[in-house]
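Attaching the record inline, Q. Sequence:
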Amino acid sequence: MPLLDLDFAPRSRTHWAWLVAVALVGLGWMALTRAPAGATTAGPPPAPKQGFAAPDFTLQTLDGKQIALQDLRGQVVVINFWATWCSPCKAEMPAMQQVYDDYHEQGLEILAITVEHDTAAIEAFVQKYALTFPILLDTETTVARLYQVHGTPTTFFVDRQGIIRWVVVGGPMSEGLLRSKVETLLQEEP
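Structure, as predicted:
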């Protein structure tokens, strides 16, 4: 008897039926799981962690405009989840505003996403800290859940290609830390 039996010839019609069924299931699976037309496989898939593409979202600003993350591709984006009652958020806002003032013209955008409902409190907070960067409303916490935010502040530093480079959970962040990360990202080639 040979060491390997290489006789693959089907022995019955049942064997042929099984081979056809397996082939059809395989072709069906390939059709169902293929990438949609126009989809790109370049770059890492969206995920809320360092080294992955920042998941896209669209939110309304405090003044009623819509901002989509994908529209900011080519800029350095700092995504900061915050709340008016959060002490570390209050402590880091002046530093965020200063860094925004210093680097906005060079391609920095800060998106401050609040997860609360009290518009009056949010407006008072923005006035008190003289914030000029976009304040986005995530009242249903859809984006906070998408980014797996479990507490405020949580900050994502996104490069010009849309990749999350750093995640800082907690705070307050110092102006020096913010400035260092933003400068590094702004100096990289678009």
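Strands lie at 58-61, 66-68, 76-82, 108-114, 135-137, 154-158, 164-169. The chain has a mean pLDDT of 87.

More tomorrow.
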